[in-house]
Amino acid sequence: MNKYSFYLFTLLFFLPLKAHEFNPAHLIIEESEDFKYDIVWMYPIRNLGPVDLSLPKDCESNSVEVFQESKYLSEKISMQCESTIKGKPIFINGLSILNDALVTVKFIDGERFEGLVSVKESKLVIPEETQVFPTGYFILGIEHLIGGPDHLVFVFGLLFIVFGWRNLIKTITAFTLAHSLTLGLSVMGFVSLPSITIEALIALTIIYLALEINEDKNSNQTPWLMAFGFGLLHGFGFAGALSEIGIANEQLLLSLLFFNIGIEMGQLIMIPIFLTIIWFLTKIKINFSVTKLSSYAIGGLGSFWLIERVLGIF
After folding, report:
1. Across-strand partners of 78?
2. Residues 70-75: contacts with CB within 8 Å, 24+ apart?
3. Which of 9, 18, 169, 248 is deepest in the core (most CB within 10 A)?
4. How far apart are the first and last CA of the chain?
């Protein structure tokens, strides 16, 4: 395999990562009176086509208001049912692989439930029992990491400047601590930054990381310091997914915790895959440096995202 065919292979590997952005839909159902519910249904209009929401059959529903807010189309619905919606199904059709729907149900007696509807499982039955933990945010955290191309590329690039398992653990831990800090501060409202600006700065971190990747000169002896500094910016990016769909329950800290644990689980899933890919590529006979070609691909993607996002600011 020559350097040009390998370069093409690398580009083909990364191109799907820039195709779509992870933006979950959110269905919020809140009981205002006995068997009467106020509903907010919001879904991303850029990544999805028509999405069909089917509420319980014994309920009468009327659309009250439809409006666009940021990337989402939101619809307010009033629903009157003959009995409780516990034990009854909700269907959401038209979702995609990167666009699940978080369903939040709050009852007048204080009970609540959260679940996920996906393209593979379009039906969700609201359970009879009370849910204690907001586990839906755990799945969202995993999908946000795996479905976030810029975060994936950054983690992938870090592996090229980390040497030894001890340094790897330090670097990933530093990245985790940093983005956990800013994720929490942002979601709880202590710090607020424009999302489009944060996305542009994240693209800059990827370009800088690409410049740091050098097979012949391991100049970065403390990669965990860079991972921590840039992780602070990526934390604001992680917060964007929650800020846009909102946390519609009183379990803010638990929801935030489960979302963050999901992000870490996503990292743990992807790191062995990335290490396997890097090992496989180093075993292929090529006439050019795997590290250099990967840095070109990472830098190219970072530059593309930077231009795209800076233009989006204006």
Report:
1. 38, 62
2. 70/244, 71/23, 71/44, 71/45, 71/46, 71/244, 72/23, 72/42, 72/43, 72/44, 72/45, 72/244, 72/245, 73/42, 73/43, 73/44, 73/45, 74/40, 74/41, 74/42, 75/40, 75/41, 75/42
3. 248
4. 43
Could you tell me the residue ranges of all domains in the chain? 3-20+148-313, 25-136
- Separation CA 22–CA 46 (nearest Å): 11
CATH architecture of 25-136: Sandwich (2.60)
- Helix axis angle for 165-187 and 223-245, nearest 10°, is 30
Residue with tokens 């990669």: 223
Per-residue HEC secondary structure of the chain comes to CCHHHHHHHHHHHHHHHHCCCCCCEEEEEEEEECCEEEEEEEEECCCCCCCEEECCCCEEEEEEEEEEECCEEEEEEEEEECCCCCCCEEEEECCECCECEEEEEECCCCCEEEEEECCCCCEEECCCCCCCCCCHHHHHHHHHHHCCHHHHHHHHHHCCCCCCHHHHHHHHHHHHHHHHHHHHHHHCCCCCCCHHHHHHHHHHHHHHHHHHCCCCCCCCCCHHHHHHHHHHHHHHHHHHHHHHHCCCCCCHHHHHHHHHHHHHHHHHHHHHHHHHHHHHHHHCCCCCCHHHHHHHHHHHHHHHHHHHHHHHHC
b/e per residue, 133-171, with b = 16+ CB within 10 A? ebbbbbbbbbbbbbbbbbbbbbbbbbbbbbeeeebbebb
Q: Tens digit of pLDDT for each residue in 8-57? A: 444 445 444 444 456 788 899 999 988 999 999 988 877 666 788 999 98
User: Using one digit for the tens of pLDDT, what is the confidence trace for 78-90?
Assistant: 999 999 999 999 9
* CA–CA distance, 95 with 281 (Å, rounded to integer): 35
